Amino acid sequence: MPRGPPGAARTGTIIGSEAAAPGPAAARPGGTRRRSGMDQALTRGRAAYAQCAWADAFDELLAADRAAPLQSQDLERLATAAYLAGRETEFLGALERAHDAHLGAGCCEPASRCAFWLALHSLMAGEPAACGGWLAHARRLLEGRDCAEQGYLMLPLAEQQLRLADATAAHDTAERAASIGTRFADADLVGLARHVQGRALIDQGRAAEGLQLLDEVMLSVVHGDLSPIGTGLLYCSVIQACRQLFELRRAGEWTAALERWCERQRGLVAFTGTCRVHRAEILQWHGAWYGALSEAARACEGPRAAGEQAPAAAMALQGDLHRLRGDFAAAEEAYRNASRLGLDPQPGLALLRLAQGRRDAACAAIRRVVAPSKAPLERARLLPALVEISLSVGQVDRARDACTELEQVAARYGTPALSALAAQARGAVELASGQATAALVALRQAFETWRVLEAPYEAARVRLLLARACGALGDEEACELERDAARSELERLGAGPDLVQLRAHRDSKALTERERQVLRLVADGNTNKTIARLLALSERTVDRHLSNIFDKLGVSSRAAATACAYERRLL
Asked: Are 33 and 39 in contact (CB under 8 A)?
C-alpha cells in the first residue's frame, strides 16, 4: 500500500523509493501518441495524488494504466487512490497487480507489504481464510529477512487476539511489531501497533494507560506522519475506542480533527460517512438534535466505500433521535432500515417499545441482547436500558442487579460518563425501593457529571429523578425547582415523550413510587394477593395503595386506572 500523503507533503510509495519510470509504449503505429497520452495522464495522476485529490488521481492513473500498464509504485498509488475514492474492486485489483509486479521483479519485501494490506482487508471483510492465505504467503516471502514488513505481519494476529478477548497476547504481539517499526523508522507500523496496544490495555481494564497511549498515537496522526489510509483507519479506530468507553470529550476532540482531515482530502469517499456518524453522535450528546439528524442523514447519502458500516449506524442514530423527539413512526422505520443493513438497533428499539407502552416487547428485546453480551463495555451500553425497562415493569431486583453490574464496569474503567450512568441508574433503583435519601446522593453525583460533560438531555432526565426524590422527602419547593429546570431543557431539546411524562406526573397529583409500582402490577393483570407477595406487603396495604391511586387519578376501577396510566404515560 502506498505511503500516500496525509497532507500535501508526502508523495513517496510504501517502499520509500522514487516513482518508477513509465513502462514502454505499445510497439505499433500510434505508439508514440499513446505514450505521450499515457505520460500526460501519469503526470497528472501523480500530481493529483500529491495534492490528496483522490478521485482525480484515480481517474488519471487509471487512464494511464489503460494506455500502458503501470509499474509497481504507480500501481500502489492507483490502489491507494481507488481505496480512498471508494472503489473497492479497483483497489483490490491494483494492489494484487502491484504485488505481482514486485514479485516478478524479485522484490520480496514490497510484495509482502502488499500481501499484508490484502490480508488486513480480508480480515476486516470477515474473510479469515483469505486473510490467513495472504499472511502465510507473505511470511514465506520474508523467510530469513530482517525488515519492517515482519512487524506488519504481526498486526493481523494482534487484531485477531483482540477479537478473541486475549488482550494480554494482543498487547505483547503489538509490542513486538512496534519495536520493529521503531528500529526501521516506519511511522505507519509504529502507529498501528501502538494503537493496538492501547486498545489491549483498555480491554484489560487499564483504561487510563490505554487512552494515554492512543492520545500519543493520535499526535503522530494529526501531525501528518502516517499514510492516508493509515491515518483514516487510526482516526476511526481510536474514536470507536473512545465511544466504547463513553469518553465523550476525547471522542469529540478526535472527531473534530478527523473532520478537518477529511475536508483536506479532495474526492475522499472512504472514512467520510464514519466521520459524519461520529459527528452526529457528538452533536446528540451535546443536545444539538437537529444538527445530529442532518449529519446522520448525510452519512446515508452519496457514494460510500464498499463494506462501510456508516449507513447502518446512521440509521440507528436517526432512530434514537426520532424516538427521543416522539416521532415513533420515523423511529420505527429508521430502526428497521438499520436492521436491513445488518445492524441490531438495540437498545434503541427496546426503548421505543417502552415509549409505545409495549412493555412486554421491550422486556423481551432487552433481555435477548443483554444475555449473550460478554464484553464489559458492550454490556455497559445495554445495562442502562435494562435498568429503565425493568423498573418500568416493577422488576426492581432485576434492575438492581443490572445497576450493580454497571457500577462494577464503571469502577473498572473509571471514565466520567460511565460513572454518571452508573450513578443515575443507582438513583433510579433507590427511588423505586423507597430510599429517597440514598437516591438523592447518587443523583446529585450524576447530575454534576452530566453538567460538566455538557450532556443536557441526560442532565435533564436526572433532574426529573431529583424532583421525585425531593418530593418523596417532603421538600416540595426543591421538587418544583428541579422539575421546572428539567422542563425548560426538555422543551428546548424537543424531547416530546419526556414532556408528556412530565405533564402526566403533574396531572396525576404525584403518585408515590410505591403507588407507581402497584399501578404497574395492576396494569399487568395481577391480583391484590399477587401484588402483595411480589412487593412483600400485606393485602390490606395493597388495598390502601390502590384506593389512593383511584383518588389521585380520578377513577373508580382497575381497568380505568390502567387506561389512565397508559394515556398519561405513567408506566
From this structure: no
Tell me which residue of 401, 419, 420 sits closest to 410, measured CA to CA.
419
Q: Are 271 and 232 in contact, with CB atoms under 8 Å apart?
A: yes
Q: List per-residue pLDDT tens for the chain, 571 residues long.
A: 433 333 333 444 443 333 333 333 444 445 555 566 678 999 999 999 999 999 999 999 999 999 999 999 999 999 999 999 999 999 999 999 999 999 999 999 999 999 999 998 998 888 989 999 999 999 999 999 999 999 999 999 999 899 899 999 999 999 999 999 999 999 999 999 999 999 999 999 999 999 999 999 999 999 999 999 999 999 999 999 999 999 989 999 999 999 999 999 999 999 999 999 999 999 999 999 999 999 999 998 866 665 567 899 999 999 999 999 999 999 999 999 999 999 999 999 999 999 998 989 999 999 999 988 788 999 999 999 999 999 988 888 999 999 999 999 999 999 999 999 999 999 999 988 889 999 999 999 999 999 999 999 999 999 999 998 998 888 989 988 999 999 999 999 999 999 887 876 665 556 888 888 899 898 888 999 999 999 999 999 999 999 888 877 767 788 778 777 765 666 6
DSSP symbol at 552: H
What pTM value is reported for the model? 0.82
Backbone torsions φ then ψ of 505, nearest 5 degrees? -60, -40
List C-alpha distances in Å: 518 to 38, 540, 558.
81, 13, 11
What grid cell was written down for 382? 445495554
Cβ atoms of 254 and 231 within 8 Å: the answer is no
Tell me which residue of 469, 558, 551, 554 sits closest to 519, measured CA to CA. Answer: 558
